[in-house]
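User: Could you walk me through two proteins back to back? I'd like the raw sequence and the structure tokens for each, with a short line separating them so I can tell where one ends and the next begins.

Assistant: Of course. Protein one, sequence then structure:
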Amino acid sequence: MKRLVSLLTLLVMMLGFIAACGQQPVAQEPTPTVVELTEEPATEEPAPATPTEEPQETEEPQETEEPEDVTPPTGDFEGLIKIATQSPLSGPQAAIGLGIRNGAELGVEQLTEPLTSLGFTVELAPFDDQAQAEVGTANANNIASDPDILCVNGHLNSGVALAALPTYRNASVPMVSPANTNPNITEGGYEVAFRIVGRDDVQGAVAEQFAREELGIQSVFIIHDQTDYGQGVAEFFRQNAEANGITVLGFEGTQEQSQFDSILTPILPQNPDLIFFGGIYSQAGPLFDQARRAGITAQFMGPDGLDNAELVTLAGEAVADMYYTSVAAPVSQFPAAAQFAQDYQSRFNTPAPPFSAQAYDVVGICVQAIAQAAVDAGGKPTREQVVEALRNLDPYEGITGTYEFNDIGDPTEATYFVLQVNYDPDNPEEGWNENAVVKRLTIAPPESE
């Protein structure tokens, strides 16, 4: 009996031991159900058949490198590039300033293929500097803080450009001007400044020589608007006049915009052969009109700041047949700009004003430099690289001329015009585009010291 009890006891203990051992897999069940463990076999199991082949199919060189003939294989040519404009879009000088903006807009639409073919998106960023130095400087700070802006197309007014250039220099932003003529734009050591037009030290000399040799002027009264541009070109006219025997009866500056009695009254008894005005059409128009009304019979003359049909609107018959100099001239004087003139008229419902075609060419120059810098850099270039590309620019054939820069940013040759106003009171804009070119001179810039 005892043996039987012992056997039964042993049997019960063995069954309990077996039952206890059978629970261990249940306790460890969560371990094999962890995701990593269940997915690893799934990815490894088909490995001998396909996984090593699938990446080869998706990365075949023939498929990924097909665009090689269009896009250079160096770098990632993606991203946004902006070309900014700075010109007066409001105020009395907007007639020319809008032309610069509009010309640049057409340029961005028509000339950016060298960048878009690389994969970039190109946009215009227009700024209204209001012909005010402080506004232009504030805009320059905004331009400098936008890393997508790689080139500035502007300004109209040299004084505004000179105020903004220190900011451009500090941020290495290249500025290519379609209109600035003050010598200090390129002589001032800013290193980021370029222009495609001539200089006032040459323009003033061209005006003085024409007045002396062609008009027979022996005496002149000079008035200027006290800006870097107007006073500068007036000073160069005076220097040449005094050196060549013309009597300078007066040299006066004024910021007056509408009433000029205080200046004109002393001029009347001096009876000068010529009144030369250094400034912009918006101020010159009322001045010339009031001079005629005051009985002054002198001929009138001025620089390219007068080059706008608005001068006829403001001055009327007082400016009929008068002469002026320009570094731009009407668009009709550039045969290669004929299509641009049509496109401008169609797009903006007004004739293309002076400097609009130059602004169009500046876009092309900026695009060529940025594209070259991008290819050299293997991707979106820095502003410093764009400045370097501008300094080494291949000759750019634009609609207003072929341009390359000397070591300070002046064009290696610039064109200067002497024009005569075609007075058409019924249609001043169309009449202005038919102003006669009396002289056309191509002159290299003075050698920098």
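----
Protein two, same layout:
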Amino acid sequence: MDQLAATASSHEVVTTTLVLLPAEVSGLDVSGLSADGVVGLVATVRDAQRALDGLVVRLGLRADELSSAGEGGDAREVLVRGVRASTARREAGRVRAGARWPSVASALSSGAISADHVDSLVRRLSGLSDEQHATIEVEELVAQACRLPADTFDAVVKRAVDDARADGGLGDTEQRRAASELRHWYDEADGMGRFRGALDAERYESLVAAIEEQMNSIASQQSDPVTKDANLAARALHELVTGNSGGGRPVPAAGFVIDYQTLTDGRHHDTVCETVDGRDLTAESVGRMMCDAVLRRIVLDERGVPLNVGRRYRTATDAQWAAAKAIYSTCGWDHCDRPITWCQLHHIHHWENGGRTDLCQMVPLCGHHHHLVHEGGWTIRLFDDRSLEIRRPDGQLHAITPRPTRKTVQRE
């Protein structure tokens, strides 16, 4: 009885804390925090988010238990309250994962992994047959999730799923192609035609590349500066589809990165086969796109640094951009996930100060971080292995990034 009373009292304290939490958090004054204080508080918030995500999973599991006994709704009914349907679906998927693999629920509840780790498991494993599921060592994946950031862990799970299917990810591609759709309707309320759809990675990349090329073509024909915004993208898409562009149709320039061994011999354990922004493709998809493509070979040394890509111009050449995209899928700044297609190649030694347009002296930076370096007083130093030292305006070390690699999967 004493233990039951203590448990009930503990639940009351936690419930009261959770009820008061929104008001306490919204009223928290962070204006006096130092840079280290901000970093520390963000880490604390992340820990709290993991604990709350784990609590939601446990509550969902309990709801399913009660529902089986004829008391109340199941996890799907309970979790849909007060959130978007997409959020409720993700939470319900985590509950199902916790029910199937108790170690997942335990690791999430303890804060050892995040909801993003669990979402990767759910998403990647959802299309497997029972026989394929049996070949996946989920306990080992959970152990790796405790050591890896979520994006790296997602690559680990994908590789395990590809191995289970023994098809190099082709099943995923076919499934996504079959699930692609385009819906359109006329909205009487505002007199606008509306579109909604989803495309597999191969067709998405080729469509986006065509739209980008058409936007560039439109912009180049205008005497005044043109803003490359959503309105211009809509115009470009219409001209592409209707052929009403007033000129020759541009050739799409979708880019992808594939290692030579995969290109010649097929998929292997260290295969790199993805778009320049880091989205996975299958070797079959790349082979299909290569039937009508201009190929550019980029030779890398043992550290992954490109060789022989040209040094003659102030702005980066197409060859240098292609080489950069072979190394980076995102901005080169520490923990920045802006895709490389949103970036500019920054001269480590500014051109105005005698810097050369050599790839060994350039790194991709998004607009925000490019501004920090040029106008914000931050300094960066690029090492031979392309790791990056970043210092704040006061000279304090901010970070040293690891050597960039398109496959960041850690192996034992």
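Residues 219 and 227 are 8 Å apart (CA to CA).

Let me know if you want the two compared in more detail.
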